[in-house]
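A student in our group prepared the protein record below, which I am reviewing. This is what I was given:
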Amino acid sequence: MSRQTVGSGTGWEAHVGYSRAVAVDGQVHVAGTTPVDDDGEVIGDGPYEQTKAALDIVEGALGEAGAEIADVVRTRMYVTDIDDYEAVGRAHGEVFDEVRPAATMVEVSRLVDEDFCVEVEATAVVPD
């Protein structure tokens, strides 16, 4: 079994014990990704902007693990207000318009930072 981990360099990874992404045997699993820049600041004022930022981070992690957006087969979106589904869905649709992964969006009571309105997970399968 081959295994590669991708880190973002944040202190949270070591503290909590996780990786931004893990590639194993042709699959890449990207951890829950929030819209945070390298300085720990929230990117985006609303659900659309935050979703686009989170998906940009997901795309970067996929790239480091040898995958790309076209390889994504599954996404999960956690939102703090399900009424934001249109804005979150629009951002997701702009990134995955041709890919059309299996996708889930659920409302959660809160995320780790009260300013976050979305968190995104992704799974990709890399062709041989």
